[in-house]
Amino acid sequence: MADHCVLLFVKYPEKGEVKSRLTREAWNINIVELYKNFVLDLLISLNKIKTKFYICFYPENSEEKFIKWLGGKYLYMPQKGQDLGDRMKNCFIKAFSGKFKQVIVIGSDAPDMPCEFIKYAFASLDSHDAVIGPASDGGYYLLGFNFDKFVPEIFEGIEWSTDKVFKETLSILNKAKRKTYILPEWNDIDVHSDLVDFVKRNKDSKNSHLNTYSYLSKHNEI
């Protein structure tokens, strides 16, 4: 899978800069530490997959902070752009210019996303132009393209952080006549009820070892 890569979008974990809705709803939890666990769990999953991946960091001038936090063994790529759409578009363009044939992006809000989903995503691109993973809140947790079927316009005019993101994105793909594979729906973590669902979902599963689960299980009220 030398011609494949994953773009993991990560914000530097500082108070007030990550998971703002959770900060308002789960005041008894250290949201910065929780977010760090999200990222660590996703890195564990990515390390199990034989493909290159980049930590796409934000803000774009925070690489030294990221290396201090996560170490220098990873590949890093800055997120550049005015909004999330710009930043994703620019990272895709940079990855494709690096001669990768298939590229997918994932966020850092679904720490228990099965790593098999990433394998399915790449496998689907052998027979499809694009792949998308719908999130239960109306967004998406994964998006991918073959290099010659990339649609930069997919990131323009989207109402980010709304329940319309998946539908609007799929509409653009359909208008561009892209054959799109839709992965199973998954639940990312944005609000307190998502935390509750996460704990229930992983309580009796093989994922109970997750750093995020271990952190949340210490809070009896969840």
What does this structure look like?
The chain has 222 residues and is an alpha/beta fold. It has one domain (4-217): Spore Coat Polysaccharide Biosynthesis Protein SpsA, Chain A, CATH 3.90.550. 38% of the residues lie in helices and 18% in strands. It has eight helices and seven strands. A seven-stranded mixed β-sheet has the order 3-2-1-4-6-5-7, sandwiched between helices. A hairpin with a 5-residue loop joins β5 (130-134) and β6. The longest helix is centred in the first third of the chain and has 17 residues, at 31-47.
In short:
By secondary structure, the chain is α/β, with parallel strands linked by helices. The protein has eight helices and seven strands; from the N terminus they run βααβαβαβαββαβαα. A seven-stranded mixed sheet has the order 3-2-1-4-6-5-7, with helices on both faces.
Layout of helices and strands, plus pairs?
Blueprint: E1 4-11, H1 20-25, H2 31-47, E2 52-58, H3 63-70, E3 75-78, H4 84-97, E4 102-106, H5 115-124, E5 130-134, E6 140-146, H6 165-175, E7 180-182, H7 192-202, H8 211-217
Parallel strand pairs: 1-2, 1-4, 2-3, 5-7
Antiparallel strand pairs: 4-6, 5-6
Taken in chain order, the helices and strands follow as EHHEHEHEHEEHEHH
DSSP strand tally: 7
Main sheet record: 7 strands, mixed
Give the domain tally.
1
| Radius of gyration over all CA atoms, rounded | 17 Å
CATH architecture: Alpha-Beta Complex
Share of helix, binned: 25-40%
Q: Strand order across the biggest sheet?
A: 3-2-1-4-6-5-7
CATH class: Alpha Beta
The low-pLDDT segments are none
User: Any idea what the shape is?
Assistant: globular
CATH topology: Spore Coat Polysaccharide Biosynthesis Protein SpsA, Chain A
Kindly report how far apart the N and C termini lie: 40 Å
The helix-and-strand class reads: alpha/beta
Strand content: 15-25%
What's the mean pLDDT score?
92
Write out the CATH superfamily name: Spore Coat Polysaccharide Biosynthesis Protein SpsA, Chain A
Number of continuous helical runs: 8
